[in-house]
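Structure (tokenized):
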């Protein structure tokens, strides 16, 4: 069995081979993809909690409906929150694991979440704009550099 060719500065000693990854094409964008995965997990948990709260204790959320921005009842809104929360949670875990279906779903889900947050700019301007910008960065990182994360996992 032959040893891979390793540069001298990467060796632990003169005769010891380097024990790490020999070569990787991964860039700093892989960190943004992982951040996007963690954000999706977090957002999924928040949406899931808000949906369950709206389902079991609707009086808690009845006063904060943003002036009835959407013509949907609290029960319908609760189920939408639960479904979006579960989708975001599962997609985030898949994105962290660099799965192809999760990359595609993250882009679609990111566009939906960006549109929803854009609709709420009049109600929560700073939060909505911050979320739209973060979602834009995550969508770009997943679309342009999503394969890097999968290749980086394959290199280890």
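Design, position by position:
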């Amino acid at each position: 069995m032959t040893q891979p060719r390793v540069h001298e500065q990467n060796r632990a000693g003169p005769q010891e081979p380097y024990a790490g990854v020999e070569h990787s094409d991964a860039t700093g964008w892989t960190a943004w993809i992982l951040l996007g995965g963690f954000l999706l997990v977090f957002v999924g948990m928040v949406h899931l909690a808000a949906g369950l709260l709206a389902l079991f204790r609707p009086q808690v959320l009845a006063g904060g409906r943003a002036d009835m921005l959407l013509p949907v009842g609290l029960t319908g809104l609760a189920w939408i929150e639960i479904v979006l929360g579960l989708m975001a949670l599962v997609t985030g875990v898949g994105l962290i694991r660099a799965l192809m279906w999760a990359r595609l779903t993250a882009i679609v889900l990111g566009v939906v979440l960006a549109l929803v947050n854009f609709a709420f700019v009049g109600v929560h301007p700073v939060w909505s704009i911050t979320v739209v910008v973060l979602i834009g960065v995550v969508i770009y990182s997943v679309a342009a550099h999503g394969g890097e994360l999968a290749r980086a996992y394959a290199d280890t």
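Reviewer-requested clarification: Residues 6 and 18 are 7 Å apart (CA to CA). Residues 29-155 form one domain.
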